[in-house]
User: What shape does this take?
Amino acid sequence: MSKPEVLAVSKLSPLYLESLQREYVLHDRTHETDPQAFVRLAPRIRAIAASGESRVSRELIAQLPALEMISVMGVGYDGINVAAAVARQIPVTHTPDVLNDDVADLAIALLLALARRIPQADRYVREGQWPNGPMPLARKASGSRMGVVGMGRIGQAIAHRALAFDMKIAYTARSAKAGLPYAFLPTPAALAAQSDFLVVITPGGAGTRHLIDARVFEALGPQGCLINVARGSVVDQEALIDALARGVIAGAALDVFADEPQVPPSLRAMDNVVLTPHIGSATGQTRRAMADLAFANLQARFAGTALPTPVPECRR
Ligand code: 8YV
Assistant: This one.
């Protein structure tokens, strides 16, 4: 039997590409690189391989009459038009859980880097400034108040780590979660008003777009800091830059941005921010586990067995 044909819709991890190329006929972004060839190819595409940042529109799905599966290597799938897929009974899968530790580790690392000014301290030593005297004092992280926006699997992993730093933890989410020992606040603004560090780890998409806006920054206040390891879309980036520039909040540590990989020069020029290039899950071990799970989902589809990790909308 001939190998199924698969379309990679964005630049995928080499770890995922390797197994895709071995088992399938892989077309790497042909819809973008060669639209004419794609018209001929489209009727044969049986699966889409995507990453957490990929866009799969209703129009693209409509162009693929033989599509049977969309496998996302990432926990977030806000760029995938799941409703269009579900309407044609095309399952969408993602890679939850295997990245919880890494993303939670990074949230804590960013919080500490921001509070203790680790990037500045590193530069201080490298640039030979130490002999001139000590660095300005930083800020204590242990014992502070952490507000978590989104108390799903990763939010809980972040809170679990923060407990070891004696932090007082509260959260907001669509609804209070039973059995958690943390205070629930109904809105991000109410949570921000009681937080030193506001950590954003809620899914992206239309429902959370600009959930963190100017009002939330006002509530967070001049001693407050924002940490975002979710999606750039959740934060109103213009309002954030304005709040940082005017001292409405103290600082921000960001792994995700509104228009990745573009980061506004105004943000890059600020000293009260720590910026990382969307590396929440970017360790060799975790990316391997994500690639294996994304591939296992595809394999299951073509073998006719149960999908390991369908997205919630596709679970029966
Ligand atoms: C990755 C992510 O950047 O899982 C997600 O939702 O954003 C990340 O882990 C990416 O999807 C890796 O392919």
Remarks:
- Residues 284-303 form the longest helix (20 residues).
- The mean pLDDT is 97.
- The two ends are 30 Å apart (CA to CA).
- The chain has two domains: 5-97+285-311, 100-275.
